[in-house]
Amino acid sequence: MKSSPAARRQHTSVLQELQRREPVFHRLEPGATRADLEAMTDPEFCEVGASGRRYGREYVLDVLEKRFENPGEDIWEVSDFHCQALARDTYLVTYTLLQQKQRLTRRASIWRRRGQEWSIVYHQGTVVEAD
To answer: Most exposed among 22, 30, 54, 68, judged by the fewest C-beta atoms under 10 Å?
Structure first.
């Protein structure tokens, strides 16, 4: 089934908006506060880390708050960025992230839009092992 030009434009717009937000938690402005982090994460947010452990919103926000108190150089490259609508105003974003030119991970995030605001509902990172 072909999508209409309007639907393609909307998808492109969503794709561009979410590309600006990913990799999530790596693109925060200097001086970002916990309130900024709370605004971008859904109250039901959870993450599955590269270790396979599950983390709730409060734990992730605590870790991020500490990380941004003493920011270091974070070199990353994003590739293979894709966006798929799951439901009205809910999208799955997948991409590959190369950090520090060494650590390769596949990432998946679910984003929800309410009005003009976006919040992340779920995030997962999986380390890609060398062959």
So the answer is: 30
